[in-house]
Structures are given as structure tokens and as C-alpha cells.
Amino acid sequence: MTYVVTDNCIKCKYTDCVEVCPVDCFHEGPNFLVIDPEECIDCTLCEPECPANAIFAEDDVPADMEQYTALNEELAKEWPVITEMKPAPDDAEEWDGVKDKLQYLER
Description:
- Helices cover about 20% and strands about 10% of the residues.
- By secondary structure, it is α+β, with helices and mostly antiparallel strands.
- Strands 1-4 form a two-stranded antiparallel sheet.
- The longest helix has 10 residues, at about 65-75.
């Protein structure tokens, strides 16, 4: 099993989760993070660190966000690994909790 970054990370992109990952499975895009399912060891450390509550165990991904499992796998192959915490975008708090953000995903 793996963990999956979902909708609420888009345009929030807090990187607290990156700091605790022991296997460097996070990849960074312009306004979203993803988890590489091939690298994730299901350690559970990232989920409680996400201030936006955007990370779920694969089996717990909400039904309306199931497409994010495949999206994480796809984008992890394209985007570079991120291993250090970075400042959140200036408007991250404004975007936290906004629904249906997939349309804002930058590739």
C-alpha cells in the first residue's frame, strides 16, 4: 500500500510531509506534491504532518478523489524528488479547504 496526495494540496503545497519522509518519495510540481508509489514504504509519517490534510492511505482515499492515486503515480515519473521543506506559497492559507482544485493543477 502507498500514501496518496489529494486535491487539497493543490495551490497549498505545504512541504512539512517532505521533512519526515525516510525514503524521499515526494516529488514536486509547480503547485502540488505527489508520492511515488514505488518508493513509498507505508511508514505513515507524512499523513499527520500535512497541515492541509491532503494525504491519505491508498485504501482511505475519499471516493471523489480516487483519480489522485493514478495522478500521483503518473506525475512522480515526471517531477523531481523534493527532500527538504520549503516555504508554503504566500496564498496557501487562502486555498486550504477550497474544493475541486484539480482544474488549477499546473503540470
